[in-house]
Specification:
The protein is an alpha/beta fold. The chain is about 50% helix and about 15% strand. The strands form five sheets. The chain has a five-stranded mixed sheet with strand order 10-9-11-8-12, with helices on both faces. The protein is elongated.
Length: about 375
Amino acid sequence: MNHQLHPRSIALAVVPWVCLGFAVAADEPVPRGNEKLIVGISDEPPFCMRDASGAWCGITVDLWRHVDERLDLDYEFRESGLAGMVRGLDERTYDLEVCPAFITAIGEEHVDFSAPYFVDDTAIAINADRQPNFMQSARSVVASVPFLLLLAGIALLTVAGAFILWLLEQRGPSEHYKGKTAAAFLKSLYWSVSLVAGRDFSPAVGHKAAAPDTRWGRAFGFAWLIAGVAVFSMFTASAASLLTSRQLQSFVGDWGDLKTLRVGTVEQSDAQAYLRASGIDSTGYPTPVDLLEELRQRRIDAAVFGRAGLVYYSKTRFRNKIVVLPLGSPRSCMGLPMQLESPLRKRINREILTFTESNAWPAILAKYQD
């Protein structure tokens, strides 16, 4: 028996498969036919770097490998310097890049960014020996006006306590504090110092502070004991705060100080753009290592770059040679840059968000930052 297919039936059978083919093609992971996805990468620890075996690793590399595992992409890394990374997407040399990049309005005019995966800011590094050490900070604190005023206040308070005890005890039966004599007042002063300091100095000076004998003297002694604890705690806390602040001080107090110094940064970096926007002249160097080596050799006074990178080098290659100042810039989000209208963007974003919201992401960050 012969069956004839009506043209309309053929169309109804074929059209869904054609539409499905277009849908699959639209979701194809590689945007350029059968060619590999070219992924730009540069040596920028702790985001991208090589391990002992020469393999790429780092925060962004581990993130990208997770994305690749989920999407099964056919790709290859192509290494370049930071300047090459900036040109790579404009010239369509790369499909996307795994080097760290701040998500900015200006950048969005040239590339598309993935969902953010890291927050960082621009920071300043100086030579470690230009940061005050403990002894220098201690001498500076002792000679400072706030510390001298603090000592003067405690001294006046101690004398006031001695005077009050002396007035309360001078008519009592005490053999130590009785009478309006200088000796009685000095003993009252020693008693007041002992209570404020919270200890008896009798082994060192050969004299022991005697307890008051009058009823009002004993009541005042109890109150002064409590006050002494508070005064001594205030003194130690204030001295520690002054010492800490002095140790954190350097010849760079704010970004404006850089205008009178020799400043270096990495060419084509977000840090260089920030310095230009702030009106600060700087010299550009090819890599962060070149930049920090110039700082170590004292050819520049300060190095400006991303905080995460500077902190990494301060713990590794330039350990005990540079310090990263707490002074920073407004924090910005980082994303993976890719070509405009990349068909991969939505799928990559979904995987990035899934991974960074998981419990595995903090472990990746700790692995390369601690």
